[in-house]
Write a structure and sequence with these properties.
The chain is mostly helical. Helices cover about 70% and strands about 0% of the residues. α8 packs antiparallel against α9.
Length: about 280
């Protein structure tokens, strides 16, 4: 369970790559004063780590190949979504970093940038990809029903997240159109589509996908508890913190967001709660 020896392993090499990428991202953030470089690398690196492991096995492990394939699908979706939102333009920062920089002061923000924004986030990315190391250790084990279940669930959550991205994009584009036309924006935040059932369907799917990714490791080793499952838990905790921080900013900007918070769960849909809020409104 706690055998974390990574010397001379492909996932150990992935850790070296992660450290180098993190250092580059941190240096770029200092030079450009744009603190979203790690955000741009976030969507790419899990696939890189999986590919490092797959290449080490000469693509002869069906399980590692399957894990790499779903990671690539995830990377493509997230990268395209970030591109559409202009996230790869230098100076196009995540609004949360802008808020923190303005409110923490330069020294405290730079400490946060070094510890969490750069090294912390990239460590989380490396950790939630770690089940591929467990699969590498048991590369001789053939695929089982749990692998197929993991792949189906991963792709299902990926599809839901993609649809949610499209719904959000349409909403934001329509909002921008109304503003440009000088029209009143009656509903400033999205509450339709998947957002009727939980306030952050994309975050729910992100957490679910990387928790499901650990099922591959369980199938490979035949054991439930292993250190490579830590990443999914840490990712869940990170989203708990970052999402609630984002909600705080939304509430400051839109006072009516409080009613949405009361009516709709943050992550996991609760049909009874939603039904009660609907009937209470009528």
């Amino acid at each position: 369970m706690f055998d974390i020896a990574l010397v001379d392993t492909p996932f150990g090499l992935a850790l070296d790559v992660a450290i180098i990428v993190t250092a580059v991202g941190w240096l770029l953030s200092i030079l450009t004063r744009d603190y979203s470089w790690i955000d741009r690398m976030w969507s790419i690196m899990p696939s890189v780590y999986c590919l490092i492991v797959a290449i080490d096995l000469d693509f002869e492990s069906a399980r590692v190949n399957l894990m790499t394939a779903v990671a690539l699908a995830w990377s493509i979706r997230l990268t395209l979504n970030l591109m559409v939102k202009g996230g790869y333009k230098v100076g196009h920062e995540d609004y949360r970093w802008v808020y923190l920089r303005e409110n923490l002061g330069q020294l405290k923000f730079q400490v946060l940038n070094l510890t969490f924004t750069c090294f912390g986030q990239m460590a989380i990315v490396w950790l939630f990809t770690a089940p591929v190391h467990q699969a590498w250790q048991h590369a001789g084990q053939s695929l089982g029903w749990l692998d197929y279940l993991a792949a189906v669930l991963f792709l299902l959550f990926l599809a839901i997240e993609t649809i949610g991205d499209i719904q959000m994009l349409r909403f934001q584009n329509n909002k921008k159109r109304l503003i440009s036309e000088g029209a009143e924006v009656e509903q400033p935040f999205i509450t339709t589509g998947f957002f009727r059932f939980c306030r952050h369907p994309s975050h729910t799917c992100e957490i679910a996908m990387w928790l499901v990714f650990y099922l591959f490791a369980i199938s490979a080793a035949g054991e439930i508890w292993h250190w490579t499952g830590i990443g999914g838990v840490v990712l869940f905790l990170m989203f708990q913190t970052s999402t609630r921080f984002g909600e705080k900013l939304s509430l400051e900007k839109y006072p009516s967001y409080a009613r949405y918070q009361e009516a709709v769960p943050i992550f996991i849909p609760n049909p009874l709660r939603i039904w009660r809020s609907r009937t209470g409104d009528s």
